[in-house]
Sequence to fold (676 residues):
Amino acid sequence: MTTPTAPSHPPTPERFFNAMNAYQLTEATKSAIDLEVFTAIAEGNTTAQTIATRCKAAERGVRILCDFLTIHGFLTKDEANYGLAPDAALFLNRHSPAYIGSATGFIITPHMREVHACLTEAVRRGGTAIGNGTLEPENPDWVKFAEAMMPLMFMPAQLAAAELLKGGESLKVLDIASSHGIYGISIAKVNPDAQIYASDWKNVLEVGVKNAAAMGVADRYHPLPGSAFETDLGADYDLVLIPNFLHHFDIPTCTDFMKKIHAALKPGGRAAIIDFVPNPDRVTPPTAAAFSMMMLATTPSGDAYTQAEYESIVKDAGFTRAELVPHIGISSLIIAYR
Amino acid sequence: MTTPTAPSHPPTPERFFNAMNAYQLTEATKSAIDLEVFTAIAEGNTTAQTIATRCKAAERGVRILCDFLTIHGFLTKDEANYGLAPDAALFLNRHSPAYIGSATGFIITPHMREVHACLTEAVRRGGTAIGNGTLEPENPDWVKFAEAMMPLMFMPAQLAAAELLKGGESLKVLDIASSHGIYGISIAKVNPDAQIYASDWKNVLEVGVKNAAAMGVADRYHPLPGSAFETDLGADYDLVLIPNFLHHFDIPTCTDFMKKIHAALKPGGRAAIIDFVPNPDRVTPPTAAAFSMMMLATTPSGDAYTQAEYESIVKDAGFTRAELVPHIGISSLIIAYR
Fold:
């Protein structure tokens, strides 16, 4: 053991120490949502004492939680007064129309904790350590996902629908792994004559059908229950949406699936893949690149694919060309043309 | 819901998304230590394939893990070759004398996961949601702590011993919550005539006694088993070490305890508190400030105290003055003079 000699910036164990404790940030974020801390601050409660009263919690607990959220950039602190960072104000205040706090309901499920607690075994195997991970048929976690994630997907679904409208109206639209339904519903909203066919597990489709009704497009929303790999998906589509789906599978499976999609499209039709697309280095941008870890922990062979990999997948499946539109929320949009 | 209008930097849900998934970093760090990924790279294995062979893991799993570790700054990546960041090379390579990877054994115990999974309840109560948290008598986790954390504490213990030597030699030394023993042992190494009295739970003291023997100071190392609050700690000490102990308790308890320490010191003797000391704002520096969260989750009323709070504690306990020495590892050293 040598003591550090360079007085300026010797290596410290700080990064390692903080990484070991990183799970505290998951728990603190969930607690802040559960207790409505962000909402309390948005309502004008800015001290630990007034936030604690509003949230029915202990002042000491709230003070420590709010300091922690400040350290991690969700809050500001000026003397004893907390404020909301812009992203917390927009997305984590329950009164905001863009509130996405319900996403904690899916991301931190017991199953997600369990598969991650076996991550060492997943690295050894090169895939999830528990069965098929999240890919079990009729997995009830996908109902939770559909219920929890719709708000988080609202903005990217709107962005994708607006982007796809630039290429012309779509009349017959298929939404793969439709989940909450928001991608298909958003297309229906900007294409008043579009008929939406939604493919997902039967238990999950109920959530999408309910959302379609709430958003006034029930009469143009048609569920196709069952595995998207096995169901007859129909034909002559102008547009097939494939949001956050292909990352669950390996490249040959994606390619075979895209052949099925190619066959379901009209000539000139488009497939719209919405997904996390890292750069070729696979370590930037950080959020898209890190999504590979989620796929290692939760699927047998899924991944976050690069633009080149998606281009190769869709070309091998018979598509003529593909283009990438970045910044659809945290994701990217790949448009593949039949 | 409005779509963002500012094209440059609209708020995005990215911080929230990453915070919810922060537990992945805990698991990935633990997996990398368990599989000896850092050691494999230090040995010259730089591609996913060669690292996988060395670590007996799948190439795909290793590639995703190493990309993730690169995103989080532990590794570098140049084309397909991974390298170690300076802190990873020094602290996480098993062949390095400064290896601290064993610390995962304490920080990520089932008990630690469990108390953090109840964090919302802890915020409501203002203290740990499960019993006395880590403060249960003879808690076996403290044996794990003693075994796992000694390497992580080696450097700060050396720094503290060197700093304290500047104030003169110490002959009779008491080490409170001695744990692995490294703080007292380090004093013994630089004060060849010092006798070290080590106070901790009986089961924990066995680890310190073993380490004292391994480091050649067994004949000057004297265990004092039992609660430091209840044990007769002896008298006429030149120096009392209090490393990472006071943060477990509230201020009145700390003050009462420091009175007991004051009584055990010779006139002119020193108490050396080693602990996380945040700035008055309680949100900087980040690692010391964030330690409050660990105390909220794991203790009834512990905290990371500021310099002013420590000064008040030791003055109320009868000490004449206190001085702070920062950068004892991630911690600070407070020297209180009787």
